[in-house]
Amino acid sequence: RANAEKFEFQAEVSRLMDIIINSLYSNKDIFLRELISNASDALDKIRFLALTDKEVLGEGDNAKLDIQIKLDKEKKILSIRDRGIGMTKEDLIKNLGTIAKSGTSAFVEKMQTSGDLNLIGQFGVGFYSVYLVADYVEVISKHNDDKQYVWESKADGAFAISEDEWNEPLGRGTEIRLHLRDEAQEYLDEYKLKDLVKKYSEFINFPIYLWASKEVDEEVPADEDESSDDEEATESKSSEEGEEEDAEKEEEEKKPKTKTVKKTTYEWELLNDVKAIWLRNPKEVTDEEYTKFYHSLAKDFGDEKPLSWSHFTAEGDVEFKAVLFVPPKAPHDLEMLQQHSSLKTIKKKLIRKALDMIRKLAEEDPDESNDKKEVEESSDSNEKKGQYAKFWNEFGKSIKLGIIEDATNRNRLAKLLRFETTKSDGKLTSLDQYISRMKSGQKDIFYITGTSKEQLEKSPFLERLIKKNYEVIFFTDPVDEYLMQYLMDYEDKKFQNVSKEGLKIGKDSNEKELKESFKDLTKWWKDDSVKQTAQLMYQTALMESGFILNDPKDFASRIYSSVKNSLNISPD
Length: 572
Ligand code: ADP
Ligand code: MG
Known about the structure:
- The chain is 41% helix and 18% strand.
- It is built from 21 helices and 16 strands.
- The strands form 3 sheets. A 9-stranded mixed sheet has the order 1-6-5-4-7-3-2-8-9. A 5-stranded mixed sheet has the order 12-14-13-16-15. A two-stranded antiparallel ribbon has the order 10-11.
- The longest helix is centred in the first third of the chain and has 23 residues, at 30-52.
- It starts with a strand and ends in a 5-residue tail after the last helix.
- Residues 228-242, 371-381 and 544-550 have low confidence and may be disordered.
- Bound molecules: adenosine-5'-diphosphate and magnesium ion.
- Residues 34, 38-39, 41-42, 82, 84-87, 95-96, 124-127, 174 line the site of adenosine-5'-diphosphate.
C-alpha cells in the first residue's frame, strides 16, 4: 500500500507475539473473549463521554452502542466491529505495538514459568491473543478526532499504518479483521461462534449481534421455477385436471400460482441478554452468578471465588446500585477508582461499603474472632476460616496506604490492621486485641519498627518492656515507619515507639500501687462529716486567729493534721 507507514513492535511486545504464535495452548477460543472485552471497554468509554456531551455519539446508526460479528467463509475472515470510542492514528501506534505496558514483560515472564495463556487479559495484553488464530490481522479504526486508519500486521516484528482510502467508512469505532489460519477455520462456523459469544458475553452490557444465516419459507410464483421443484409442479397440474369442478377451477386460475421454497437469508441475530447484574434484585442473583460476574470483571478465569461481595442500592444525594467484591488476590497493578467530580459522592459511599464488607469478612472469620460465640455456631464458619488472613496477605499494603492517604477513614482502616507482637505467638493480631490485653494502667500502645521480627527481638529497647510484661507490636513492613507518622492514636491511646530516647512507660503500676495503699485515707477524707469538720475549722482559723491564707497547701495540710488529731485517727 502506497501510503503505509511502517513501525517495529517494541521488543517485549515482539517477544510476546512470538510466544503466542508458537504456543501449543489448546484453548484458542479465548481470543474472542478478549476482543469482545475490548469492544465493550471502547463502548464504555464513548458512553461515559456522552454523559456530559451527547454530540460525541453522532446520529443514526453511529449512536447505536453495539457490537457486530461477521464471518466471511470465502475470504476466511472473522470480523468484529464496535461503535466504541475508536482509535486515532497515534492511539493505534501506541496501544497496538510501540508502548509496552507494565503487564507485557510480567506476562512474558509468567509464560516462561507457569504458562497459562488464559491469564492474558489480566496483564493488559489481551489484544495479541488474536494471533492464536490469525496470521494476518487488520484493525480499522475511526476516532472522532481523526481520520479513519488501518493498522495491519502479520506478526513478523513489524506493523503498518495507512490512512484508509478503500474500506467503507465506519462512522466511529473499530473493526478488527482476523484472517484465520488454516487450522483455525472452525471459527467460521456459525454454531461454534454463537456458542462462544454466548459464553463470553454473559456480563457484557452492550448488544452483540452475529450476521447469521436464517432459513425462511418464501412464496414464489410456481411457473417461474417449475423445473427445479417437481413435486409442487405435479401438484399444481393435478388440480388443473379436476375438469368437473369448472367453477372452482376458474377461480383458481385467477389466483397467481405460487409455491413455498426454503431460502437462506442473513440477518443480525442478537446473542446476549444485556441486563446488568447490579440492576437485578439481589435475592434473585445466585452465588454462582456473582462468582462468574467477578471472574469476567477481573479477567480472572481461574476457579478461585471472591473472598466476599456486597450488592446494594445507595440512596440519598446520588442514587446508584453497585456490586463490590473483595478479590482473592491483588491484581498485578492496583486500579484506582476513577477521578471525576460527579463520582465523588459515589466514591465516598463505595469506600464505606467496601470497608464495611472487609470488616465483616474479619468478623466472620473464625480464625480472627476467636472467642465470638455466634461465629462458631454459624454453619459456614469453616468456609470462612482463614479468609481474613488471606485478604490481609493480598491487600495489607493497600490498607496501610489507605491510612496514610485517607484521613476520614483512618480509624476504620486502622481496625483492619494486622501485625505480630511480642505476645502474639507468631500469629496476626489487631489493635483491638492488643488493647484488650493491655496491662492495667498502661496508657500507650507500644511498637517497634525494623526490617524483621528476628532482628527486632534482639533490640535492647525491647528488653525493658518485656521485663515489665508489656506487649510490643512489631512493624516490619517498609511502609510501616511511614504509616506511623500518620497513625498517631487509636481509641484514645497514643502510639509510642519504644526505641525512641526518653520513652516514658507511663505512671503505670506506680500510680496504681500508690492509690491502693492510700485507699483508706482517701475514703476517709471524702467522708462528709470529715469535710464538714474541716470546713468548720477552716472558718474558725480564719475568724479567730486572723490567719492569712497565703499558702493554701500548707493550710490544707495543717487542717488535715488537726482534723486527724481531733478525731483521734492515725492513718499511718
Ligand atoms: P487492555 O484491554 O487490557 O487495555 P488489550 O491488549 O486488550 O489490553 O488492548 C490494548 C489497548 O488497545 C486497549 O487498552 C485500547 O486502548 C486499545 N484497543 C483495543 N481494542 C480496541 C477497540 N476495539 N476500540 C478501541 N481501542 C481498542
Ligand atoms: Mg483487553
